[in-house]
Amino acid sequence: MTMVMKVENKDPVKVDNFSKIEKSLRSLKSYGPCSYAILENDDGSYIQVAGGRVTCVLELREKKQDRQLRAYLSVPRVCYTGEQTLMFGAGQVKMQPDEILFIDDVVAAFKAFFEKTPFPLNIKWREMSHIFAAPLLP
Hints:
The chain is of the alpha+beta class. The chain has three helices and nine strands, in the order ββαββββββαβα. The protein has one domain (3-133). Helix 1 (18-26) packs antiparallel against helix 2.
């Protein structure tokens, strides 16, 4: 199985080995030239992450179901409350404390997506499609 991996400021590459994907993910930082990555399969579905290390936001696009999902944890790993804003190379994203994942969570989710196996049980998914269905302002 071959998928396409896109990392900020790097050329897209076809990947057929998870070790290359993991290496790219672990090199991400929420600042600097490599702050997001996307892994896309042949049907147009993808998993994407913004940030790095201990400040990651993970989303899943299910193309066939036309759904956009954001990962969250049942028990937040951070001690603060209230909405946060992550600044990264593609812009910014607002997130709740339970939506902040560590890179180990991200690697496990990307591996499940790559291998087409169930996602780790600690990762839950929140529907976000309504954000993309909203009309754009003029």
